[in-house]
Amino acid sequence: MRVIYIMLLTLMMHMPLLALEESAIQSTMKTKIDTITNLLKDKGMDKIQRDKQVIMIIDPLFDFTLMGKLSLGKQAYKSISPIQREAFNTLFNQKIKASYIKKIDLYSDEKVIVKESKKVKSRIHLVSYIVSDGEENEVLYKFYRSKSRGWVIYDVDILGVSIIQTYRQQFAEILQENDFDTLLNKLQSKE
Asked: Contact at 8 Å (CB) between 175 and 156?
């Protein structure tokens, strides 16, 4: 039975977002979030295996490269070499995934409610809430339509705070007094 569950889970995780219509964003995200919550509830699963499965679920949902570019800022991103861009993209991707895993390690049976998605200009915003001790904490997923991948997430606001804006501020502070290689070293040295 467990083998069948893992096979179904693997198939669900690889559902392409290329064909995802605006009207399907809410149901797709609910399915993915429910799958992750079920993984977190499975106390018999090895943490390393669980983390790998969670990353497999979120990977196709996010455009980590665009998130990094937006976090760095247009000017800074244009000013670095292609080699530095590649290194930055890799390190940012690792950092954001590690941060996500750290956050879900804090999970203690909270309920996640996926609300409606709404069109905001050419973007889609999906409102969800993490319910903890009766309090609803808003998480807003921001999607854009990628030419090559369909609807993907480019930013997440948690309690009104944008992940992109937070990183942009941190990176700008580092780059005010240091060169880009220092930023890369700081990204590499932190988990």
From this structure: no
CATH number of the domain at 55, please: 3.10.450.710
Tally of helices (H runs) and strands (E runs) in the chain: 8, 5
DSSP class of residue 186? Answer: H
Mean pLDDT, the chain, rounded, equals 87
Which residues 6+ apart lie within 8 Å of 4 measured at CB? none
Instruction: Return the pLDDT at 90.
Output: 96
Q: Is the pLDDT of residue 51 over 60?
A: yes
Segments forming the whole domain that contains residue 34: 2-189
The per-residue pLDDT for 23 is 72
Question: How many domains does one find in the chain?
Answer: 1
